Amino acid sequence: MTNLNQLILNFEYKQNFKDEDFYVSESNYFAFNLITSWPKWEKNFLNICGDHFSGKSHLSNIFLKKFKGIKINAHSFKNEHLREIKAHENIVLENFDLNINEILIYSLFNTIDQDNKYLVINSTIPINEINFKLGDLKSRTKNCLVAKIDKPDDDLMFALILKNFSDRQITIDKKLIDFIIKRIDRSYDKIFEFIYKIDELSLKKKKPIDFKTIKEVLKA
Question: Which whole number is the average pLDDT over 86-107?
Fold first, then answer.
């Protein structure tokens, strides 16, 4: 099957990332509260971790819009970025995993410490659980604040489904959303995959989304 990221990229629709579009529930409250309470953090390093599509990038966008700063992809972090961040108090590092230059990232940690800056790190698993080769980096990551975004609860699932259909300019009855929530896997990936599939099927059949269409996608 095609990668879900590719599916979403290939299917054009307007996706909103405004502050008011971020739905706060028990699943993400701790992460949201930390992001919006800067600079009242116990430490200068904050790791937001959670599954793909759980809202990490949305949170970092809210953070940068509210408090200003720079966002860099961890996979493409280079020496010149160490100079570039000198002009910023807040730095966001996206897509953090083992596919990084550990020496450069360790230098980044040192710069954050020395210049009293703030670093937000987005990752799919807690940074303090990643098995780095560089012992010094492993030691430094143990000193991060970790805010984990949990699996979506019913309220968040409802909001995600409603928002994504709204982004596609599709109106859907509340009863249909409740029906979906009771039958779909409690996973951000599965929610987005389901929305893509049901939207695609509805467009092919040129019919509105109903119970029959939903059941057909669930069985598939």
Answer: 96
What's the pTM value of the predicted model, to 2 decimals? 0.84
CA distance 220 to 207: 18
State pLDDT tens for residues 104-115.
999 999 999 999
Helix (H) or strand (E) holding 146: strand 145-148
Distance between first and last Cα of the chain: 13
The least confident of 9-18, 104-113, 208-217 is 9-18
Which residues on neighbouring strands pair with residue 73, listed in sequence order?
Answer: 94
Query: Where do the DSSP E strands lie in 108-201?
Result: 118-123, 145-148
Helix, strand, or coil (residue 206): coil
Residue 107: CA count within 13 A, CB half-sphere:
15
Nearest to 103 by CA among 72, 136, 128, 81: 136
